[in-house]
Amino acid sequence: MVTLIEKAKSFLECGRLSPAAVQSLGDEANIEELMLGLFPLACSFAAPVLSGFSVGAIAQGESGALYFGGNYEFSGSALTQTIHAEQAAVVNAEAHREQGIVRLAVSSPPCGCCRQFLYELATASKLKIILPQGPYQDLEEALPGAFGPGDLGVQAGLLASEPHDLKKSQCVAGPGVEEAVASACRSYAPYTSVFGGAAVVTRDGNVFSSPYLENAAYNPSVSPMQGALIIARLNGYSDTEIESAVVAQIPSAKVDHFAAARLITRREGTGLPIEEVMLEYS
To answer: Are 209 and 180 in contact (CB under 8 A)?
Structure first.
């Protein structure tokens, strides 16, 4: 007999289950039970190289699709570089151009940092948190007295912002360059306007990219390189299978995406080759 996890794996593409795949696994009335049952698959995307503690998260988009994520730790770097499973699931949703998250199931209760990160979503007011031990609760109940985009005068939220019209300010080409620039055009940076994106290139020539995602509390923000590494892992690639990277950003003294990328990709004293691309408005 085929198990739920085996069946889900047969439908899984880039860490995502399409709305049609979700329907084939269970009906909408049982979506929360389905998400709970998929935790082992979500945890398989974790890379807890420091703690050894795997966490899995599954986000349901407004489209009905499910997006997986796991916690991602980096050896040889600061603990603050760690990406939590909830963040990874949202980064995954953004990579598939999802416009909002309505449910998020997580194998362990979200920490304060993750609750703050999720509050940045445009759909935060209707986001439901699902836990294996229950009870389920709305995000706003889980984060009383919340501080978010509205407190800083930002109307658009994460996953619902308008794209930016950016281009390269110098003539540069190569694997990952166009993908990094395209990601920068999708970046969410309402607090600094330092739009940026990153792409990683694997040894077999695949390219995975992600934009910069800011947060009103700053610390839970996800750098372009963090996001690109998450997307690579969701596609089955480890850090050691990445050959080079590209980071693109608007010139600014406020935030340096290039420096952040170099810090997170250090490997036993040697860094991943990173192409730095400056951007300008079209």
So the answer is: yes
| Spatial distance between the Cα atoms of 185 and 281, rounded to a whole number of angstroms | 10
- 188, part of any domain: yes
- Catalytic annotation on 268? no
Could you count the other beta carbons within 10 Å of the beta carbon of residue 219? 9
Confidence band, pLDDT 50/70/90 cuts, at residue 29: low
Q: How far is CA 75 from CA 52, 81, 224, 234, in A?
A: 12, 10, 18, 19
**Which of 2-11, 25-34, 84-93, 256-265 bottoms out in mean pLDDT, i.e. has the lowest?**
25-34
Q: Which two tokens stand for residue 75?
A: 């050896």
What are 84's two structure tokens?
Answer: 């939590």
Predicted local confidence at residue 28, as pLDDT: 66
- Domain match, 105 and 146 both: yes
Give the percent of the chain with pLDDT over 90. Answer: 85
At 88, list the tokens: 């990874």
Examine residue 136 and state whether it is found in any structural domain, yes or no. yes
The residue range of the domain holding 75 is 11-152
Which backbone phi and psi does 157 adopt, to 5 degrees? -110, 175
Q: What is the pLDDT of residues 154-180, one digit of tens each?
A: 988 999 989 999 999 988 899 999 999
Closest CA to 195 of 206, 185, 207: 185
In sequence order, what E strands does 34-164 have? 56-61, 66-70, 101-106, 128-130, 137-138
pLDDT above 60: residue 270: no
The answer to whether the beta carbons of residues 71 and 54 sit under 8 Å apart is yes
**E strand or H helix at 148, and its extent?**
none
Active-site choice (6, 13, 28, 86) = 86
